[in-house]
């Protein structure tokens, strides 16, 4: 039986690939994005429903949009792919509050507002999947990437809490975070750069941009393969067949390596500082 998917950020990259692959599988797809009439025109031939949705909109507007699209297909929405987002590049000292608020509005509050709008409906159904496209940046931080990393760290923390809540209130709803490394999409060609504000960072910013430019076209991840595996994870097919799917799944050798190294380093710190950590406990008389 076909599933109905709502996918955000479909103009290119993972979002576009989700639409194309899901439509080829015969599923129902609601493809969303900003200025959808023009930016998603290339997806009309897929058979997907094209819907205008800016995830950075106020919660009330997102709620109204979810109410509008919920009944586009019989049975409502089965899977939500929270994919929309962007990369912000800039040193912390050069960032201004508005820039941080903007990226959090898109990368964090957008998925959270969509989640809150859908949860009552999914709980009433007793089933559904909430898929969040995070990043290795939800674990591993790079100089100049604080805005992006902060949004992904926040998203993963909130979604982990959500997974525990739903285990109590709606065990039929699945929650999944996918953490890709560098995949060959347009993401690194569309980075938002903070304007230069502190002269001391000029050389640093130039070096960061050189690194970013060097990534474009050289990303090790195949986006088509990545999206295929994400669909498998939701459906329990292919590489996911017969497996218990964890909350977090890293994708790509580079992302997997960074996440694994971060975990190993944290375990070492816990081992090295175990006695100091435990020495702060109240001693029972």
Could you give the topology of this structure?
Blueprint: E1 4-7, H1 13-24, E2 28-33, H2 36-39, E3 49-52, H3 59-69, E4 79-82, E5 88-89, H4 97-125, E6 128-133, H5 146-169, E7 173-180, E8 192-193, H6 202-215, H7 223-235, E9 248-251, H8 253-272, H9 274-278
Parallel strand pairs: 1-2, 1-4, 2-3, 4-6, 5-8, 6-7, 7-9
Q: What can be said about this structure in brief?
A:
By secondary structure, the chain is an alpha/beta fold. It has helices at residues 13-24, 36-39, 59-69, 97-125, 146-169, 202-215, 223-235, 253-272, 274-278, and strands at residues 4-7, 28-33, 49-52, 79-82, 88-89, 128-133, 173-180, 192-193, 248-251.
Would you kindly provide a written description of the structure presented here, covering whatever features stand out?
This protein has about 280 residues and is α/β, with parallel strands linked by helices. The chain has one domain: 3-Layer(aba) Sandwich (Rossmann fold). About 45% of the residues lie in helices and about 15% in strands. The protein has helices at about 15-25, 35-40, 60-70, 95-125, 145-170, 200-215, 225-235, 255-270, 275-280, and strands at about 5, 30-35, 50, 80, 90, 130-135, 175-180, 190-195, 250. Helix 2 links the parallel strand 2 and strand 3 (about 50). The termini are far apart. The mean pLDDT is about 95.
Order of helices and strands: EHEHEHEEHEHEEHHEHH
Cα distance spanning the termini: 63 Å
* CATH level-four homologous superfamily name: NAD(P)-binding Rossmann-like Domain
In angstroms, what is the radius of gyration? 20 Å
The CATH topology assignment is: Rossmann fold
- The average pLDDT is 96
**CATH class category name:** Alpha Beta
Content-based structural category: alpha/beta
The gross shape turns out to be globular
Number of helices: 9
Q: What is the number of beta strands?
A: 9
GO molecular function: oxidoreductase activity
Pfam families: adh_short (PF00106)
Keywords: Oxidoreductase
InterPro entries: NAD(P)-bd_dom_sf, SDR_fam, SDR_oxidoreductase
